[in-house]
Fold these 3 entries.
Entry 1:
Amino acid sequence: MDPWELRYYEDDDTPTMKTIKSATTGFAAGTVWGTVVATWYDVPRVERSVALPGLVRTLKMMGNYGMTFAAIGGVYIGVEQLLQNYRMKRDFDNGAVGGFVAGASILGFKGRSISTAISAGAALAATSAVIDVGGQTTRINTGK
């Protein structure tokens, strides 16, 4: 294959940039999701010591969900890229292990139990493996 054609098969981003992009995207998605979740709850009662209690509560939930999603995205892609570089393979195993580590570490820490960690890790690993094996992707190869 011509070296000119090989560049289309190479990734433009380094593993570090992929991890940063994933964490940033996760933070943005989590912030939006935190806003949606905050609107489902009742507005807290008005207290003298807290100005705009609904806004303060919404901002806290946005930050909490944003940081959780950012951590999950960063750990997932970070572990996946680490395994890909270590194993020199690009297959669904990398994503499954990344999903398990992200789910077990982040959601297990938030749930504060081993059973939550294992079930969250298994759920993310299975989801990642199914998506990778099924060939689902958000990129469209135009052949250019």
Entry 2:
Amino acid sequence: MFSPEDGPLDVESIISVTIGATVPTGFEHTAAEEVYEKIGVEARISKDRGRIYFTISTDKLFQVHQLRSVDNLFVVVDEYDQYQFKESKEETLEELQQLASKLPWTNALEVWKLNRTFKKRKGQRKGAKVKPSGEAGDTTVADAELQEQAEEATVADDPNKTEEAPDTETNTQDSEEAVPAAKIIKFRVTCNRAGDKHSFSSNEAARDFGGAVQEFFQWKADMTKFDIEVLLNIHNTEMVIGIALTEESLHRRNISHFGPTTLRSTLCYGMLRLCKPQPSDIILDPMCGTGAIPLEGALEFPASFYISGDNNDMAVNRTVNNVCHIQKRKADKGSAPGLPIDTVRWDLCSLPMRTSSVDIIITDMPFGKRIGSRKKNWDLYPSCLREMARVCRPASGKAVLLTQDKKCFSKALFRMGGLWRKQHTVWVNVGGLHAGVFLLRRTGAVFGQTPEDVYESQGTTHTQGDQDDGQHS
């Protein structure tokens, strides 16, 4: 029987386990590439979008926490590719209860213990609130921080909630009478279910499976202050049981000053990988908002130089504050605090930059929901693409643009067809919205010598205002 007093794995006890990771929907292949590049193992993409799985030895667990493309991590207890759910709800729930005592829990629990010895635990200090702060280096923290262990569990986000799951609920058993907390593990069960052929709900599965887990381990159920989160992921006939290894999504690592629509750092990383930054590249984010894209780039691809700007004072201030926050944290850890980022307040459609001076443009365009409007986008988008084409190097320049206003973007791209060519599109789920990440290549046309160069929008309104990486905007 598992005991919380047991120590972590010895070097001689290195074992092989399967790790699951939730990733930005649409960037599963990007995440798999990163896993192979940095850990040297092949990753399998789940049938349920937004998840990948890969097998590692436990001595590489620390490297897993340094992946840039993953939101949450969990260790797999067991998985079933074709689980035969009963037609009757009662039979299915009874089978789930029986399954709890038959699962191979040992290795997964050993990994959970090992994970506790070095992972960065946010908001654990007494009297501190859980803050969505951190930097790229937060997953590579000082040794003293890595060894720090918390005695209380934090209130955690759902560490395996995918953006596309149509039925995602969390449940656990009612807490029983208090028992000595020092000797009893607190837990909760989270069920993420997708599919319309199940006779049971997520709440019912979590409740009955959790009750059996509680009875088997004699743990105490606690929905908020838990030590262990058991995950029950069901997608049609695929079922995966796991134990969470992250308490707060890794996508918040860079931002301390959030805006209304701050872009996830993991999505920024996926967008950056699409354009493959090279040393000495000049990379421009003309609608930077909180600076999530240039911050991720400066930390992961520091050999390039990033210019960020916005037409809204609050957005520019947030970017500057986020840059300062990361610089301070780097300095506190003894690293050189400098970041290759400059931030400017400007008019998006009249950038104070030389023609053909930028290698890559990467930005999150206004969706016309929270920021701006669809009507204004019809003028804004062509003007944006034209000005971006002016500052981008002909033939070699690239742009990676995120927007949910696909119709408007397609029309604007057609209008600017002499300056841009679409190479690839990644469809992503952003806050429940179906959006596209468009990879464009600058044509070889010299700016000033195509019909598109003389395009002038009638009544153009420059409305990236406080864009804040406006993915839900």
Entry 3:
Amino acid sequence: MAAYTRIQKWLKSALIFTVFVNIYWCYGHEIVLDDDIFKASPSKNVVNVGIAKPRRFLLYDVNPGEGFNLRRDVYMRMSNLVKKLREKQEWILVLPPWGRIYHWKSPNLDQYRLPWSLFFNIESLNQHVPVIEFTDYLKEIGKPEIEEVYTLQRYAEGWTNGKFEEKYDERECIDRPAYNAKEGGRFKGWFWGYDDVYALNFKCLSVQGFASILAPMLWESTTARSVFITRAETLLHDRFGGKNYWLARRSMRFAQHLIDIGNDFRKKHLKSTDEKDKTVMKENWQDQKPEKGTAKGGPYLAVHLRRQDFARNKRKEAPSIENAAQQINKIMKDRKLKTVFLATDAHKSEIDDLKNQVEGKVVQFKPSKTIHHQYKDGGVAIIDQWIAAHARYFIGTCVSTFSFRIQDERQILGFDPNTTYNCFCGDKDLDPKCEQPTKWDIMY
């Protein structure tokens, strides 16, 4: 019974100690614990507890005219900026909701306020830097408010003496301001279609340099808990192709529901599975470090043929349908392949023309109405990329970010760069062979 009483007293003392620590932690007071609690020493026990600093949030957006895959690239720049910021303070990256993009042209789909989880694995992103959806940010803040907005812009005078140097300055807005103060001093503008969201302050910032150039400003020149950077594509990668570049890129795994749809299509229509193709992914992207050339790929040629605006404005990079078919036929003959997987924005008449000239079977992914409505145009594009990334050989369209992202994916899977970094020659460059994309090695 005596032992039981001693245990009761010890538990009571422990409970009192825990309550004291939790109460005083919130207020940053010095905690003085009575000797009787410990029965250990006649001296006083002092614990200094500081106030926990609140999390800070970095929000960003890009030029409305930029496409899906360029936006993915800007995410990498901003995530690595947050990685830099976290060296001194607890910053969280807020993911900008997806909205209608130039290539998302399906008129019957609602393509606004789309979360990143529709397209990407959020848990995977969080293994690089902490990220949250915009709706979760609003819940945490408790009101539809962003403290400061900075619109990035060029320097009106250009480079001084033609010399590039990293710098930034608060300046008058060169273009018409996108955010304007309304009644009550709150700034209104485009916040991804959330009409109730407002900002407390707005400024234009002339900047030239790499993403990390903003770190000192965000550490030292503002105490705002939430900062929104618009036109973030103005900032450059700190080191394109470097370790942090690839850490961010490797963390951008697609949402599993899109991968599953792509894998099912590969199995049914292209005789392709990860086991046969040697493209099995590790559960954690940080463990995915295959030797170059170990991936075999499915028994098909993958083609990304960009048309529409490229056919009009980039004729050097975009071949005619006839010449595209000629290049496809040559690769199929050289690689002994009989099936082509085609990802393209070409009109139906051009696709039919291409199919008639290709000496083999041409396959496309065409989503059901259910899949299309559920995962939108962006989800369909990702499924196309996933299927193309698993081919025995890939040829894309030069300077297209859609092709760039497929090439990245193939590098991550372990394909030979010679089967990956290939693009169509324009009509004027067929002989001799046109310049091909630069081969980038992953830095682990």
